[in-house]
Amino acid sequence: MLGALGELRLWEIVVLSLRVSLSAVALATIAGLPLGAALAVGRFPGRHAVVVVLNALMGLPPVVVGLAVYLLLSRAGPLGGLGLLFTPGAMVVAQTLLILPIIAALCRQSVEDAWREYDEQLRSLGVHGMRAAATVLWDIRFSLLTAVLAGLGRASAEVGAVMIVGGNIDGVTRVMTTTIALETSKGDLPLALGLGIVLVAIVLAINAAAYLVKEAAQRKYG
Amino acid sequence: MILPLSLEAVAYGVGQKPIITPLSLELSAGASTILLGANGAGKSVLMRLMHGLLSPTAGRVVWHEPEAARQRRLQAMVFQRPVMLRRSALENVRYVLRAAGEDASDSRALQALDEVGLRHVASQPARALSGGEQQRLALARAWALHPEVLFLDEPSASLDPSATREIEALVQAFDAAGTKIIMATHNLGQARRLGDEVLFLHQGRLVERAPVEAFFTRPASPEAAAFIRGELPWV
Ligand SMILES: Nc1ncnc2c1ncn2[C@@H]1O[C@H](COP(=O)(O)OP(=O)(O)OP(=O)(O)O)[C@@H](O)[C@H]1O
Ligand SMILES: [Mg+2]
Hints:
The complex is a heterodimer.
Chain A: H1 3-41, H2 47-57, H3 62-73, H4 88-124, H5 129-139, H6 141-157, H7 160-166, H8 176-186, H9 189-221
Chain B: E1 5-14, E2 17-27, E3 33-36, H1 43-51, E4 58-63, H2 68-73, E5 75-78, H3 89-99, H4 106-115, H5 131-144, E6 149-153, H6 161-176, E7 180-184, H7 188-194, E8 197-202, E9 205-211, H8 212-217, H9 222-231
Parallel strand pairs in B: 3-7, 3-8, 5-6, 6-7
Antiparallel strand pairs in B: 1-2, 1-4, 8-9
Helix pairs in contact in B: 3-4, 3-5, 4-5, 5-6
Bound molecules: adenosine-5'-triphosphate and magnesium ion (MG).
């Protein structure tokens, strides 16, 4: 119902969406897992406050993140010199900030639970420091993967942040969610619907993967 | 040889609350030592102090072996609630072998599982095992290490009589292999079956130390007498 050209456009948009969200997930994972792990085992003043704030940030409205990143990257903003605004790079930055708290907070919870359980046993075995951390992280790797998938699900479905910092420029920063919003308001329902179906399929696949990972891990490792 | 172990005026407290009041004692190889005392008497804390999981707030815990890594390597502890790594039974044993810098081959780990009768569940996830099997796996991990000292904190606390007997047989096997047993229990029959001497704690105080038969037949302190009466109401 789209025609060859429409289909080409559709796939370009899908590919850009995935590139942006996967990049954001990669960055948020690289920063979020160590941050979560450090919060789980570190003992420093204000730790509880940080944990509470982090948990609260999990529900951050994407438009607010978009606004903050917009201010940061706009010509007059502190990082305006980078010239990132209205590029896919800006969208990656916004989504990274959006899902970093999710990945870090879920990671903190898993690490803290496992650590509380393992701590004495590992010390009894003379396992300390990096080695103890590696043991715990390895043993909860499936929970960590679930945390990353939760971040991916959130990134691929959000519209507010990428709309504001990307500007929804045709062929440059137009992703699935922003296109759906725009085309629907313009009345081009076939493209919006086509993208909507792809988006739902992707989100479903991510959630199915998260579910299967958890199930398999539960069965295999208890 | 890391034994004997000396506690020199060891005390432990949290904030203002004293949990172990200063106590001095020496534990040497051979005799199996049983820690007895009511809930909250301080048995678990005392064992953690000995094993080095807690640092005393006063006094010193001194092993004959001065080098920390060797001290650690030659002790093992089995906790009341066994901590099962999220791995198979076999991998649990291989993990402790690797941690100790030993040969962590499958065959070596399987030998330890054989010892506790768990070879048939080697590839099963440790956390899916029954309580008794988990406790035996914890003993297999300790067995693989050939420790000189084995701490056991109520190893059969939530097990049925047959699983308890299996644990006791394994503790006896450790003893026969020359491992020094230091065990807390609320099971007085078990204390008699497995122990040579009793350390009796009351409210964080070491009230009495006596050979096991003497302790049960002629407790020297009124606290110990009351404890034995209380735990064995039919006597
Ligand atoms: N970290 C801690 N903070 C505060 N109190 C503690 C702490 N650890 C232990 N205690 C207290 O120390 C006392 C001794 O505890 P411990 O666990 O050694 O008793 P126990 O003899 O092993 O008892 P049980 O037979 O119930 O296992 C208890 O009153 C307990 O509440
Ligand atoms: Mg206890």
